[in-house]
Amino acid sequence: MLESMSLFHLLTFLKFAVILVIILSVAPVMAWVERRGSALMQNRLGPNRIGPLGLFQSICDAIKFLFKEDPIPGHVSKFYYALAPVVSLVPAFMTFAVVPFASTIEVDGRVLGFQLADLNVGLLYVFSVASLGVYGIIMGGWSSNNKFALLGGLRSSSQMISYELSLGLSVIGIIMAFSSVHLGEIVQGQAEVFRQIGPFVLPEWLQVPKWGILVQPLGFIIFITAAFAETNRLPFDLPEGESEIVAGYHLEYGAMKFSMFMMAEYINMFVASSLIATLYFGGYHGLHWVLNLVPLEGMSREWMRIALELGAFFLKVAFFMWFFVWVRWTLPRFRYDQVMELGWKVMLPISLANIFLTAFAVYYGWI
Amino acid sequence: MDISPVFFYLFAGLALGCSLLVVLKKNPVASAFNLVMVFFAFAGIYAMLDAHLIAALQVLVYAGAIMVLFLFVIMLLNADVPSFDLQRSHPGARVVAGLLCAVLLLAFVWAFKNSPSPVEPGQFSASRIEAAGGNTRVVSELLFSEYILPFELTSVLLLGAIVGAVAIAKRKQKVGAGGGVK
């Protein structure tokens, strides 16, 4: 018993370490992708001096951030000023704990899961932790004692409240369709065959997996829009809107503290992308057909399956990370009243209607 | 159910300490941040009691939504100036407050000492909930079958409150703007 417990702990620590490394490496890689991507879209070159394709630019940036002087302005509330970047970073890390990035594998009679914490409340945990990310921004904006920073914090809190409603309501459709809040079960449910669109039954030869986007197209649009607002990405980056409030909530921050806010933004993007992939794009499903092409038997076949699942999951996540960058450099920023209007007068009614429609479909057995 | 005493005292201490700070801090924003920590500590204790759903909802509803709204209002009203002065409070008032606190503490101690501790777990023991498919499933099934009437009544009540709040806000705006509201 003790031996198996310690093995369990060891495995958990190992998983924790691997996930931590993945999450920590997201920020530098995404910083590079964003800069090169924006350059691509604006017909520029972007950073291309250090390393192949400028890939090591992020490492130089990290070193610069670490060794730069880190001044604390005299007029800030010191405790909360120092705490704010940490507060925005921690929830971003915590959210990823329940996302499954491959199914389970049985090794020597022991089931091994590719997920840090297999919580029963899965999705609710994600939302409860994700809703805390705003505190870092509010805290940073308020403790800076600067009117622009305070405006950024204010905007952020009102925006988060408005869009969290739509975000939560859009996911209720998914919960109803797969009748579970457990992320693993939702992913399992998406492996089934998509049989009918509303009352129309699809022909037998059309074998489409029942991915969330097919079951919940309206919910997906609401979810992804609200996810942009929740991660403070353009077109919803009102909390930092440079042209209006200089840099918003992180105006008074420099060096590593500033870079922690940046990291939190990229990690939130990563979490949002992995949630979109998990809830609406079949999670780790999608590459299983490769298994039939390779002649593998027994255990090696199982490991191959896990590798394919990891590949499928991270490919989807990478696509949506790129999608975030893509949208950022394509759409201009909303005006503040437009953001509020969209949130309350458009997204909220549509997400409520989506729940109603889903209930209708579930009642008639269409889903 | 075995609660690790270390973590219990950690979370309980955090809850108590932060509750004190909520009252003692002069700045309302700092008080609000400490209140968030209190909710967190409660959520930790709920999670240790295997009530994961309550823990998640505690953080989601109180810390994630209500307190953000509180902070928004506090920052919008810019209530930085303390509305009362601690130095000028009447010494008699302090004595009365202290006495009332002592009475409350004694009442709590008395209540805890005299209430029988439940030895038999109720209908919903941890193992039974686990067998029935976990917290979330059990709660939602009960909510939409046995307790459907109170649940729906609560939502009607909340809807009434929302409509009332909007109505009051609109009326005041009309008076203030001199009929400028559409």
Tag the structure with descriptive keywords.
A: about 375 residues, mainly alpha, two-stranded antiparallel sheet, about 65% helix, globular, B: about 180 residues, Four Helix Bundle (Hemerythrin (Met), subunit A), about 0% strand
Our measurement of the CA-to-CA distance between the termini of chain B, rounded to an integer number of angstroms, reads: 59 Å
Describe the main β-sheet of chain B briefly: none
CATH class wording of the domain at 1-80 in chain B: Mainly Alpha
Unreliably modeled segments of chain B = 177-182
- The quaternary structure here is heterodimer
Number of strands of chain B: 0
The chain-level structural class of chain B is mainly alpha
Helix content of chain A: 55-70%
**Spatial shape of chain A:** globular
* Total helical elements of chain B: 7
Head-to-tail CA distance between termini of chain A: 44 Å
| Largest sheet data of chain A | 2 strands, antiparallel
Reported by name, the CATH topology of the domain at 1-80 in chain B is Four Helix Bundle (Hemerythrin (Met), subunit A)
Q: Describe the global form of chain B.
A: globular
What string, H for helix and E for strand, traces the elements of chain B in order? HHHHHHH
Mean pLDDT of chain B: 80
Domains counted in the coordinates of chain A: how many? 1
Alpha carbon gyration radius of chain A: 22 Å
Helix- and strand-based class of chain A? mainly alpha
